[in-house]
Give the backbone structure.
Amino acid sequence: MTTIAFIGLGNMGNPMAANLVKAGHTVNGFDLMPENLTVAREHGVVVMANAIAAVKDADVVITMLPAGKHVLSVYEDAAPKAKQGALFIDSSTIDVESARKAHSVAKKHGLLSIDAPVSGGTGGAAAGTLTFMAGGAKDAFAKAEPILKPMAGRIVHCGDDGAGQAAKICNNMMLGISMIGVAEAFVLAEKLGLSHQALFDVASTSSGQCWSLTTYCPVPGPVPASPANRDYKPGFAAALMLKDLKLSQEAAQSAGAVTPMGAEAAQLYALFNAQGNGGTDFSGIINFLRGNPL
Ligand code: NAD
């Protein structure tokens, strides 16, 4: 079994670390928030005084942090203190440029590294069914795969350094755009006197079919498990969708890609968030499109 340092024990990190403990690993954890450390301790994580103490004896270091600046600051502090040849896995969702910088910090200190953001949300983190999309060298990925397994439903090696983050933001840009498209269609159907169920029955088996419709339907009724049936309680919060859409637009700008629908989706989610809806599920944008408050 492996000694793993886990830095960032928030909504995602804590259940992920708990699954590593369940798999028999020793998990040395650190977070800046004392209440998250209390939860971690209850899950069997060995709570450490700081990131450096957590990393010192670890063979694998996993970070699950809010943004690129947090990841780079932990890497700068911890990489020089890590064991030679240790593997650094960053599962946060961050910009591709910071992800590549994190890889070079790791390399400078003789460490292996992969970027491995996830999809599947807090439910997937608790159930150990996250999809990991990994970027990095083949030897680093090979070493990471068995470590990720207890937290994963699926693990995909997407390519070199940063490829995992690239896959994550491309996927979530599609998701943001498709949710707005599905929501607009339901709003139009309402105005045309077409029932939600009738539109769902047709579109779910026609060319309009997509995940935003069939798994995450933004109106209550057709898909009983979707957040629309519980007052848009997340799920996947609109603030996180906005974060990912902004990352997609930064990446599009620096790579010279034309993404007008992604840009529009980012603007709509920015307005939705500015109206105080950041903590609601992202499918709640349908109320914004109707002109209604949630
Ligand atoms: P969160 O805010 O609940 O957790 C982040 C944790 O990092 C916090 O507990 C914070 O105290 C800690 N932290 C910040 N700086 C630190 C530092 N220097 N040292 C130690 N701890 C530090 O966020 P989350 O929902 O767990 O998300 C984590 C990452 O996963 C984000 O990048 C997010 O975009 C991504 N993500 C989240 C979801 C989701 O549904 N919540 C889904 C997929 C991906």
